[in-house]
Amino acid sequence: MADLMIDCEEEGFDVQLLEKYVLTEVESDVDLCAELIFTDEAGIQKLNAETRGKDAVTDVLSYPNLQDARGGIRKDAYPYDLDEDGRLFLGSVVICRERAAQQAEEYGHSLDREIYYLAVHGFCHLLGYDHETEEDKRAMRAREEEILSKMNLRREE
């Protein structure tokens, strides 16, 4: 299994927990990297408007760099995309701190659980999961819960 390196400057966020579990069951013959960014409501609203044409605050945005990575990630498919360390960039995930706090309260679980859920959700998008159809939504939710369970962050927390 490939290694994942996540660039994240958020204090108190255990990026190693995500790095350890988010790629389980993802076939890759190349090490991967991604970035995780935390912002406020104004920042995510601006990004949402500029990149998706939706002038609204949202909880998480994902910007995948690869086409449907669910089927596996092969180095030879992206020979010119490797960084100086030989890693392939998966993409970026942006989380709104305030929206995460609101949702944690609304859903009755910890802020940590909500933030890690949003991060896992975003990384699932980077790996090619989506929730446009009911079938896709079920597959994505199952994958999210599988990862969160391995991280010991189940829904009841």
How large is the count of helical segments? 5
Helix-strand pattern, N to C? EHEHEEHHH
Structural class: alpha/beta
Give me the oligomer status: single chain
**Widest β-sheet, arrangement of strands:** 1-2-4-3
| Cα-atom radius of gyration | 15 Å
Shape: globular
Number of strands: 4
User: What is the averaged pLDDT score?
Assistant: 92
Task: Explain the overall architecture.
This protein is α/β, with parallel strands linked by helices. Helices cover 40% and strands 17% of the residues. It is built from 5 helices and 4 strands; from the N terminus they run βαβαββααα. It has a 4-stranded mixed sheet with strand order 1-2-4-3. Helix 3 packs across helix 4 and helix 4 crosses helix 5. The protein is globular.
Overview features:
single chain; 157 residues; alpha/beta; four-stranded mixed beta sheet; 4 strands; 17% strand; globular
Strand and helix layout:
Blueprint: E1 4-7, H1 15-21, E2 32-39, H2 41-52, E3 60-64, E4 88-96, H3 97-107, H4 111-126, H5 134-150
Parallel strand pairs: 1-2, 2-4
Antiparallel strand pairs: 3-4
Please sum up the structure shown.
By secondary structure, the protein is α/β, with parallel strands linked by helices.
